[in-house]
Design brief:
- It is a single chain.
- With about 425 residues, the chain is α+β, with helices and mostly antiparallel strands.
- Strands 1, 2, 3, 4, 5, 6, 7, 8, 9 and 10 form a ten-stranded antiparallel β-sheet that branches.
- It is about 45% helix and about 15% strand.
- Among the domains are: about 200 residues, no CATH class; about 70 residues.
- The chain is elongated.
């Protein structure tokens, strides 16, 4: 019979590539399945958003016992410091006991993934978790962080047996029944992740001649500034020569009409505004998606924690009711025994009284019958006694016979 060491849905866990202790932790669910002394498998499940699906899809990473390098699997106290949100994802209660399960594989793990054609790619703004998942599927050494308090006392021995002697077990066979509409693959099912690397956040240069139209440069000489004021003096005026200011002739200007061109600073502001709007929209979408994912994880954790607390409360109530039932039964048994003892004592006293009274009645009855028997069986003949000379002898015989009959009757009654 196949057994799960944890609850059916698994427990919260954090996984990362063991060769890089500084890499980000991937949130997932952890499960350990075993069957007698035949099969054992560690599994991690992560649900990223992938292209072609609206909802997040589950990816199950299988770490079979026969794929583990013997003598390298360990489970010890975690040395990596976790953030509060990470602790809340794996903790069972307010005081978690974080353990690190280290697995070294012979080959990359198998994956149960959605049954889609072609390679699997992430949805936009979900590339980070997707890349973490791909790196985890490629790794030959991984570490899984989980809360040790999820184990029941009777399950610890089974878990430690799998950890210490994985070569005794083999992986579970995968058939159509176990696939459930999924397919069994390895890390090559994912599309290359190099294209999802985060690009630089610096804005592009605005002096790129290939992206910007060249300015129109006029080779005509600069225009002379127009005169501020021109005085008009009528002809023939005595002061004509002294006050008349002649306006200098304006050289020919370029034939390009400046009103038909936009000022360069305006085009710069327009391009910058469009670029910043696009970057701000992408950043806000990514940030909102991350916040929603964190909120979803937190809500799922709170739901699981509430379910576990509810189940534990029910179990505690069952134990309390059972103990109260045993106490009530014991108290009832004690009351019954006490009542029976009292009734027996009263009955014993009543029976003794009845026996004593019955004995007296029997004794009186015996005496009455004895007296009647003796009166019928012996009637002395006074006349014969007076006449016969052997009266004394007869009297002696009469007394002897009466005593013998009396003793015989008493023996019979007894």
């Amino acid at each position: 019979m196949t057994n799960n060491l944890f609850r059916q849905a698994g427990i919260g866990a954090l996984a990362y590539v063991a060769t890089d202790n500084t890499c980000s932790l991937l949130r997932c669910t952890f499960q350990v399945k075993f069957k007698d002394s035949l099969h054992a498998t560690f599994s991690l499940q992560h649900t990223p958003h992938v292209y072609g699906f609206i909802d997040a899809q589950p990816f199950l990473l299988l770490y079979d016992a026969d794929n583990l390098v013997p003598g390298t699997t360990t489970c010890m106290t975690a040395k990596r410091t976790l953030a509060l949100t990470e602790l809340s994802h794996i903790a069972r209660n307010q005081a978690p006991e974080v353990r690190a399960l280290s697995l070294k594989l012979k080959k990359p793990c198998a994956i149960l993934c959605p049954n889609v054609s072609g390679s699997i790619a992430p949805q936009p703004s979900h590339e980070v978790h997707f890349c973490q998942l791909v790196d985890l599927t490629k790794a030959l050494e991984i570490t899984i962080l989980f809360d040790w308090k999820w184990f029941q006392p009777k399950q610890i021995g089974q878990f430690l047996t799998i950890v210490s002697q994985p070569e005794r077990f083999s992986g579970f066979p995968i058939d159509e029944k176990n696939l459930k509409g999924r397919r069994l693959e390895d890390w090559s099912v994912f599309s290359p992740t190099e294209q999802y690397l985060v690009e630089s956040n610096e804005p592009p240069s605005y002096v790129d001649a290939s992206r910007k139209r060249a300015r129109h440069i006029s080779h005509s000489p600069p225009l002379s500034p127009p005169p501020k004021r021109v005085w008009y003096v009528p002809e023939g005026s005595p002061t004509e020569k002294a006050t008349t200011i002649s306006s200098p002739s304006r050289p020919p200007s370029s034939t390009v009409d400046e009103s038909t061109h936009t000022h360069p600073s305006r085009r710069l502001r327009s391009s910058l505004r469009a670029f910043l709007s696009a970057r701000a929209s992408a950043y806000c979408e990514k940030k909102i998606t991350t916040i929603c994912e964190d909120a979803l994880y937190d809500a799922q954790y709170l739901r699981n924690a509430a379910d576990d607390e509810f189940i534990e409360t029910i179990e505690d109530q069952k134990l309390d009711i059972q103990s109260r039932k045993y106490d009530a039964l014991e108290e009832l048994q004690a009351d019954i025994d006490q009542m029976v003892d009292e009734k027996f004592q009263e009955l014993d006293a009543t029976v003794a009284d009845y026996m004593e009274e019955a004995g007296e009645q029997v004794e009186r009855a015996i005496n009455d019958k004895l007296d009647r028997y003796l009166n019928r069986s012996w009637v002395p003949d006074v006349a014969s006694c007076a006449v016969e000379p052997s009266l004394g002898k007869v009297k002696r015989e009469g007394r002897t016979a009466r005593d013998w009959k009396r003793n015989r009757f008493r023996r019979r009654v007894r």
